[in-house]
Known about the structure:
The complex is a heterodimer of chains A (228) and B (125). By secondary structure, chain A is an alpha+beta fold. In chain A, 54% of the residues lie in helices and 19% in strands. Chain A contains 5 helices and 7 strands. The model of chain A has no long low-confidence stretch (mean pLDDT 87). With 125 residues, chain B is α/β, with parallel strands linked by helices. The mean pLDDT of chain B is 92. Chain B has one domain: Response regulator (Rossmann fold, 3-Layer(aba) Sandwich), CATH 3.40.50.2300. Chain A binds chain B through residues 22, 25-27, 29-30, 32-38, 40-41, 44-45, 48, 72, 76, 79-84, 87, and chain B through 12, 14-15, 18-19, 21-22, 25, 56, 83-86, 103-106, 108.
Amino acid sequence: MNALTENSIRQEQIESFGRLMAGFAHDMKNHLGIIRESNGLMGDILEMGSLCEDAKVVERLQKSIAAIERRVAISADILHHLSGLAHRPDTTCSSFLINELIEEEYAFLERFSRLKQIDVGWELGEGLPAIYNDPSLLQHVLYRIYCQCLELMDSVQSLTIITEQEGQNIVIAFRFPGVCPTDCSKLFNEPLLAAIEKLDGKLKIDDREKNTIEIRLAISSLPVNDAP
Amino acid sequence: MIKSKVLIIDDEVEFASTLCQRLKLRGIAAIDMFSGTEGLKNLVKINPGIVILDLKMPDMSGLDVLEKIKEHDPSIEVIMLTGHGSSGSGAEAKRKGAFAYAMKPLDITELIDTIQSADNKRNKA
């Protein structure tokens, strides 16, 4: 099998996963819609006072209804992000805002840092311009870098995610405590570098501050004809 | 106070009927139908001012139902329901004449506000 065929198979596989995820998210939102309306109806009836006159029972029911509503809201938010993530590969290149892209992906990345008890802080630049590039591939790259950062970190440390404009580029930086550079060489494996090259991005490690590592990925808009 | 009659068209029977009950509890005249075909067939009889319409239904697409409703009576305001995170389908619905779109799971307070706005628009016309 030649490389072209293998790439085509891989591409179709990613598209299939995207569609399956999007379908799953859509169905789950329908289920959540029914749960929220049913729960809301119970709340409505309870509020009208016709269901129960025992104040303690009413209070307990109201707490349960509120707990269900809270979980529906959290699940709906996750599914909203999952839909976004799943629809990203629909078009290879598009205009997007880096901060929105990261926030969408972070809904899923948060779990990994939470399990490792790593506190994640944000310094997202305001008013960053939209860029034209491959958002799905960029999310893949960010996922890899994020996981590598967590690998390099000890529990109970802090990771700061920064976005800022640097000339024509938007920089996404991951700053965390550590000593440069030996362990960071793990980041530069071939597939990750190839993906970054396809995005026309630049990856570098900055160790300007003492005992602090900053992994910086600079991305800019691709010319429309050069889109991957 | 919402004067317009509200028709809910959604193939998710539990969703449509529960939402219908919640609207009725708030004093809104609401009726539920569980397919695009059924909704269109009963449009003259029900004579709704506002339609809450699901985008994805097995018998016919919400966008097609929207077009037929607007052909029948352009003054009927349609609120599209979409489960999609992307606003692409919602934006397309607005281009085709929908008053607004809302995403599932719904926020009842936001939905009531949207229904109220649609009702106000109809009353001004």
